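User: Just a sanity check before I run the rest of the batch. Below are the structure tokens for the first item. I only need the designed sequence back.
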């Protein structure tokens, strides 16, 4: 098991990273929360990891902190929830919102996440309720900051990230445009877009 990785950040295109560790390039998948906490290209980065090995794939997942990795590991234990869906959940809402949705049986909020249908939402609530006791009132994972060179670039990056999460291009554009304003980073646009989906 690979539990931690430290190296130089060579490439980043949400949700994929390429990290150089003494000449070896490791491909790592991360949530948007972790993505927006990354340093600039060429700088040193340290992530906690979870290594998934299957017959057809070996994939390394990276996390900014212990709580995010713990929630990821708890999610993939749920029947029907794989690493890809777990990462989408971690990207689509904060830990606080997720825990609250589970504890209040709020399937309506969970089904708004890409790839989560009604049956999966119900299964998450049933199987996760007891497992989330250790999280309590979990603080929002990753109060993060990011900057974009200009608003146009921020909008494009936000739309691209939402499409990666599973939203259709037209829907991603609509969500971003609905909350776009002056001098907003792509992170702010994505957070506002996802927050508006949770509220609606």
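Assistant: Here's the designed sequence for the first item:
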């Amino acid at each position: 098991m690979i539990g931690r990785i430290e190296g130089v950040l060579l490439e980043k295109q949400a949700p994929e990273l390429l990290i150089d560790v003494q000449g070896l390039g490791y491909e790592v998948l991360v949530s948007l929360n972790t993505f927006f906490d990354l340093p600039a290209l060429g700088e040193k980065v340290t992530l906690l990891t979870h290594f998934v090995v299957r017959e057809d794939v070996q994939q390394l997942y990276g996390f900014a902190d212990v709580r995010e990795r713990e929630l990821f590991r708890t999610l993939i234990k749920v029947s029907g929830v794989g690493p890809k869906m777990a990462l989408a959940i971690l990207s689509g809402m904060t830990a606080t919102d997720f825990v609250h949705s589970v504890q209040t049986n709020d399937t309506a909020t969970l089904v708004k996440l890409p790839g989560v249908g009604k049956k999966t939402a119900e299964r998450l609530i049933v199987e996760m309720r007891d497992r989330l006791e250790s999280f309590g009132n979990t603080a929002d994972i990753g109060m993060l900051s990011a900057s974009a060179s200009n608003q146009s670039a921020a909008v494009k990056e936000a739309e691209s990230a939402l499409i990666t999460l599973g939203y259709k291009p037209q829907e991603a554009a609509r969500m971003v445009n609905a909350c776009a304003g002056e001098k907003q980073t792509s992170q702010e646009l994505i957070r506002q877009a996802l927050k508006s989906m949770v509220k609606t």
